[in-house]
Structure to design on (611 residues):
């Protein structure tokens, strides 16, 4: 569209230019143009010194020296004209008449231009059309080309290992790849085969993409970035052709890195038959495999792929010679989290009292992306408060925002609902406090956040990778506490406990079907989770157990929930007084930090001054 307008403008300009040229040639500005009658009269009055006929123009010079111009009909000679106007031939004798051939090229221009101009315009127009069509054509041809982005090396945004905090093992593994790319000869001389593929595995936001770019940055080689989904188009065959062109480009630039992000989009197990267009994916995947097998020893192209779903990948991708190196990137632990925070605060002014270690302690389970997001939220909060540097309060507030959702202080709730929320959260907090396997309470609040009416924040003391049955049972008890308190104090329950109950049920189910922690059903798993590709979500569980076992599972879920419920109830009954103290405190202060909460539970503060 833009091009069309540009072409049109160009035409217009050319046209104007020609027209202007034309008019300067055909006009003689200094000379007055007079009519034939005037000329005839002047001739009769003997005022004319000379006449010069040039084409259609008659230039007149008068005796007094002034000049005039007369247009005559083309083809009519001067003598016919004069005799037609009955000019006395005797009067002409004193006049010098010269007939001049019109000057060379203005004459020709005058003849040719009227024909040539339209022709020229048509020709130009055709030319532009052709060119446009050609462009379209080449675009159609490039449809099957890869649009891989080749990151420029002297790019200022070049990422190196320094920008990736933590992930020590992954970096170690990958620095070998860097070595290969930098000094390929060293390895080739020893007959070592350079690894072809490295697969980065890790949950979303753990820095896989970042790490891949860092490898290219460290090795100082070109980096072709392409996302798995970019291979899959509407038309069958496009993906495979894009793979071909991508690898062709890469081989020309060797040594280099080809990075296929989110490879599970094309690398899913073949032949599952579920979901549309899997033919296309299979072809694409086959082409990737073929290309990877086709590397010569001398071609130092290393393919790095990233995925967060290694379980769905086709086994053929993982065999030696393809993605034989697999680097797992874990969620960062306490120390790594602090490091990541340090990387991301570099351009952010912080208060002096900010202790990033405490932030790291409060954010177990956060990924690198979550942490980056957290700092960004804190910076936004600080800006909104018109402060110049980020403080601890903003950071804590940002943690909760990232974890639970934005605060909704303005939500108007009735006193009755506020009271219910206060007791509900007090119940969660109290049970969590007294159960040995539950994480300590960090904060209790009845300010709505995200979709929650209130929340109890529990943070583990240390990073935990394994969980025992008692951990889960305690968790269920804490979840049920809100529901129990509502029933106990207000006589009936509200919808506020819905998500607690849902979560409790799903924990109980996982306990039995995934972790084999039920004594009744024994150490085995139940059900195979099948995934439907087009929804990208588990929605279908294939049963590998009988109807009878299904009943047993349901009964066992109920039994776990009853067991945990009884524990919670006992704690609540024994500490009824404390429950009320906390709930009342929440109604007054809305939020209790860890220290305040624990102070309220200490025996000597039975009668605490709440205001
Ligand atoms: P993934 O590809 O694994 O989903 P990304 O590599 O896109 O995750 O990471 C998202 C963002 O999170 C990065 O741009 C970076 O800002 C941040 N991040 C993640 N991990 C780290 C890390 N180890 N060090 C520093 N920043 C990180
Ligand atoms: Mg990514
Ligand atoms: Zn609750």
């Amino acid at each position: 569209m833009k091009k069309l307008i540009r072409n049109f403008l160009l035409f217009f300009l050319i046209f104007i230019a020609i027209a202007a040229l034309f008019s300067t040639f055909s006009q003689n500005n200094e000379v007055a143009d007079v009519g034939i009658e005037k000329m005839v009269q002047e001739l009769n009055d003997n005022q004319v010194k000379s006449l010069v006929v040039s084409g259609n123009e008659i230039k007149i010079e008068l005796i007094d020296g002034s000049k005039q111009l007369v247009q005559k009909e083309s083809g009519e000679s001067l003598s016919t004209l004069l005799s037609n106007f009955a000019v006395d031939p005797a009067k002409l004798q004193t006049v010098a008449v010269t007939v001049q051939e019109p000057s060379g090229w203005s004459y020709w221009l005058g003849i040719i231009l009227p024909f040539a101009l339209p022709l020229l315009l048509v020709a130009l127009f055709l030319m532009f059309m052709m060119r446009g069509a050609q462009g379209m054509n080449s675009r159609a041809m490039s449809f099957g080309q890869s649009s891989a982005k080749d990151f420029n090396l002297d790019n200022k945004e070049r990422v190196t290992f320094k920008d990736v905090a933590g992930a020590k093992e992954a970096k170690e593994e990958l620095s070998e790849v860097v070595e290969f790319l930098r000094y390929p000869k060293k390895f080739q001389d020893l007959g070592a085969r350079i690894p072809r593929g490295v697969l980065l595995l890790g949950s979303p936001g753990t820095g896989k993409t970042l790490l891949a770019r860092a490898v290219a940055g460290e090795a100082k080689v070109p980096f072709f970035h392409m996302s798995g989904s970019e291979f899959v188009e509407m038309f069958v065959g496009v993906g495979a052709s894009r793979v071909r062109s991508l690898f062709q480009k890469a081989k020309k630039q060797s040594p280099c890195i080809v990075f296929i992000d989110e490879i599970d989009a094309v690398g899913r197990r073949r032949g599952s038959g579920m979901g549309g267009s899997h033919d296309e994916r299979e072809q694409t995947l086959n082409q990737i495999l073929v290309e990877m097998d086709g590397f010569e020893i001398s071609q130092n192209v290393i393919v790095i792929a990233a995925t967060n779903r290694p379980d769905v990948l086709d086994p053929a991708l993982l065999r030696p010679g393809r993605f034989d190196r697999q680097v797992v990137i874990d969620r960062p632990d306490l120390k790594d989290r602090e490091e990541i925070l340090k990387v991301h605060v570099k351009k952010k002014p912080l208060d002096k009292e900010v202790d990033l270690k405490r932030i790291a302690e409060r954010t177990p389970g956060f990924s690198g992306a979550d942490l980056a997001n957290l700092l960004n939220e804190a910076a936004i909060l600080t800006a909104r408060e018109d402060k110049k540097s980020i403080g601890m309060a903003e950071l804590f507030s940002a943690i909760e925002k990232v974890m639970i959702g934005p605060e909704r202080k303005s939500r108007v709730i009735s006193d009755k609902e506020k009271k219910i929320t206060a007791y509900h959260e007090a119940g969660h907090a109290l049970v969590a406090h007294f159960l040995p396997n539950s994480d300590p309470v960090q904060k209790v609040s009845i300010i709505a956040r995200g979709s929650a009416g209130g929340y109890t924040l529990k943070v583990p003391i240390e990073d935990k990778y394994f969980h025992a049955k008692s951990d889960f049972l305690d968790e269920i008890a804490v979840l049920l506490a809100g529901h129990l308190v509502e029933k106990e104090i207000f006589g009936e329950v509200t919808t506020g406990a819905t998500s607690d109950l849902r979560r409790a049920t799903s924990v109980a189910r996982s306990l039995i079907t995934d972790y084999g922690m039920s004594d009744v059903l024994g150490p085995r798993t139940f059900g195979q989770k099948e995934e439907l590709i087009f929804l990208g979500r588990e929605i279908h569980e294939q049963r590998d157990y009988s109807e009878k076992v299904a009943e047993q599972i349901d009964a066992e879920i109920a039994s776990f929930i009853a067991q945990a419920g009884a524990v919670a109830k006992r704690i609540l009954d024994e500490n009824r007084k404390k429950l009320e103290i906390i709930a009342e405190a929440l109604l007054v202060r809305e939020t209790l930090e860890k220290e305040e909460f624990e102070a309220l539970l200490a025996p000597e503060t039975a009668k605490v001054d709440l205001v």
Notes: The radius of gyration is 43 Å.
